[in-house]
Specification:
The structure is a single chain. The chain is about 45% helix and about 25% strand. The protein is of the alpha+beta class and about 120 residues long. The mean pLDDT is about 90. It has one domain: Head domain of nucleotide exchange factor GrpE (Nucleotide Exchange Factor Grpe, Chain A, domain 2, Roll). The chain has a three-stranded antiparallel beta sheet with strand order 1-4-5. It has a three-stranded mixed beta sheet with strand order 2-6-3, with no helix packed on it. A hairpin with a 2-residue loop joins strand 4 and strand 5. Helix 2 runs antiparallel to helix 3. The chain starts with a helix and ends with a strand.
């Protein structure tokens, strides 16, 4: 009877993990879309209505992904953590302490508290 209870618990845990990470592949592919969207929004344009509409669409997309469990990894000014950050450059920056992230080159993301893409960062010496 105890073995059966353990089996039921293990099966429920596996089922909940499958459900939590079922969208991982799709979400990882959408991260490139988010990156390109952010780059496009950084460019200036004379049409204020266009910019407002694009910002609304971007917010709608990010809200849907947040509801699915996507979360941005905080990096700028944080201590370098190899579990969440991928250091691609080092620099001497007087504004930051040693070992702090000075620039985020590509945002990193968590999906249901699992790293699906680490942040590419520049770290202070």
């Amino acid at each position: 009877m105890a073995d059966f209870q353990n089996y039921k618990r293990r099966a429920e845990k596996e089922k909940s993990e499958i459900f939590a990470y079922a969208n991982e592949k799709l979400t990882v592919q959408l991260l490139d879309v988010i990156d390109n969207f952010e780059r496009a929004l950084q460019h200036e344009t004379a049409d204020a209505g266009y910019v407002e509409g694009m910002n609304m669409i971007f917010k709608q997309l990010t809200d849907v992904l947040k509801k699915a469990g996507l979360e941005e990894i905080k990096a700028l000014g944080e201590d370098f953590d190899p579990n969440f950050h991928n250091a691609v450059m080092m620099e001497d920056n007087a504004e930051y302490e040693s070992g702090k992230v000075t620039e985020v080159m590509q945002k990193g993301y968590l999906l249901n508290n699992k790293v699906i893409r680490p942040s590419m960062v520049k770290v202070n010496n």
